[in-house]
Amino acid sequence: MTRVVVIHRVADVDRWRAAFDAAADLRAAGGELDFEVLHADDDPHLVVHLARWTTIAEARAFFESPEVVAIRKSAGAEPPTFLYLVAVPLAASSDPGDRDEGLSFNGPPDAAAPINK
């Protein structure tokens, strides 16, 4: 599982969001599978774009392309920080049905229940 975290400061949130939404088809064609947009609770100009991508190579190629750099710039976004992430697989189990593609956190730990499957 490949995830990308894009963190950047934007001058005008509405202007940035309009450009972001207009690029939805471009992101999907580049390999984005789904996404979520958040902002810092105390600063709406600090935007975080969390996305699931087909591969890290496709995500890097997309985000570093001259076209996307120009879109970000025209949308008033400062150069972002990128985190290209891959899931840490759980330890192998004797039952293939017990395996998960990544870590699973379902709330605060309970003394009676394990954190992961």
From TrEMBL:
Transmembrane segments: none annotated. Residues 13-73 form the ABM domain. Residues 94-117 are annotated as: Disordered. It comes from the Bacteria. Coiled coil: none annotated. It holds the Pfam family ABM. InterPro entries: ABM_dom, Dimeric_a/b-barrel. This is ABM domain-containing protein. It comes from Actinoplanes friuliensis DSM 7358.
